[in-house]
Amino acid sequence: MDLLQQLVTIFAENGYVAVFIALMICGAGLPLPEDITLVAGGVIAGLGYANVHTMFALAMFGVLLGDCAIFLLGHHYGARILQWRFVARVLTPSRYVKVQEKFDQYGNRMLFFARFLPGMRTTVYLTAGTTHRVSFLRFLLIDTMAALISVPIWVYLGYFGADNHEWLVKWIHRGQSSLWVLVGIVLLTVLVLWWKHRRRKRCGLD
Fold first, then answer.
1. Residue 164: what pLDDT?
2. Most buried pick, 128, 142, 143, 202, via CB within 10 A?
3. What is the rounded CA–CA span in Å between residue 38 and residue 157?
4. Which ranges of 78-160 would DSSP assign to H, the alpha helix?
């Protein structure tokens, strides 16, 4: 967790601006883990260097802005963006084809689940933009729904674990699997509510 400690130090010295810049770097697909960045933002709030609710709002804005920038770059430049040297390192032609196949198989659900797959977000969002498979507003809606699950978990985990490093490290390691459990619970809840709504509607018609 040396990276976490380094980020905490940088964020504590430079505040919200440093967190925002770091999230832009994450969104660009550079090797800076978004989850650790969000946890570090929560830690400095727990240590009294920032307000945790403001940090959550800033983190949401930074995450969504970074995601939208990637999507819109792909949407504007299309497949030509694959020729850019930086993009070619992140999204190789073979990887591009594989992501397209996943879109064919899973549709827009790929956009939702990509948020919980570190290393896949940038490639999925770029591909969604370049192929014009989804409108910007739909992308923003799906991405916001996913971010409302992942972002608060990481930020508030850092906040509550700021004074207990061992506990924090343990839950960071458990975090990704815990996120999948939460996603499953949310989806199950939505399905149950949808089923109840349909049942009430049918009973009303009968």
1. 80
2. 128
3. 9
4. 85-90, 93-106, 109-114, 121-131, 136-160
Q: Is 20 exposed, middle or buried (0-12, 13-18, 19+ CB in 10 A)?
A: middle
- Dihedral angle computed from the Cα positions of residues 109, 113, 118 and 119, in that order, rounded to the nearest 10 degrees: -10
Task: Using alpha carbons, list the distances in angstroms from residue 59 to 96, 142, 164, 177.
Answer: 28, 17, 22, 21
The better pLDDT of the pair 50, 121 is held by: 50
Dig out the tokens for 202 from the structure.
Answer: 């049918």
pLDDT at 151 over 70: yes
What value does the mean pLDDT take over residues 152-165?
87
- Is residue 149 very low, low, confident or very high in pLDDT (cuts 50, 70, 90)? confident
CA atoms of 45 and 22, how far apart (whole Å): 16
> Torsion angle of alpha carbons 127, 131, 136, 140, nearest 10°?
-30
Mean confidence (pLDDT) of the chain: 82
Tokens standing for 36? 């650790």
At CB < 8 A and 24+ separation, what contacts does 37-40 make? 37/7, 38/63, 38/151, 38/154, 38/155, 38/158, 39/4, 39/154, 39/155, 39/157, 39/158, 39/161, 39/168, 39/172, 40/4, 40/7, 40/8, 40/11, 40/158
The whole-number average pLDDT for the span 48-54 is: 94
**Contacts with 47 (C-beta within 8 Å, 6 or more apart), sequence order:** 8, 12, 162, 163
pLDDT at 144: 94
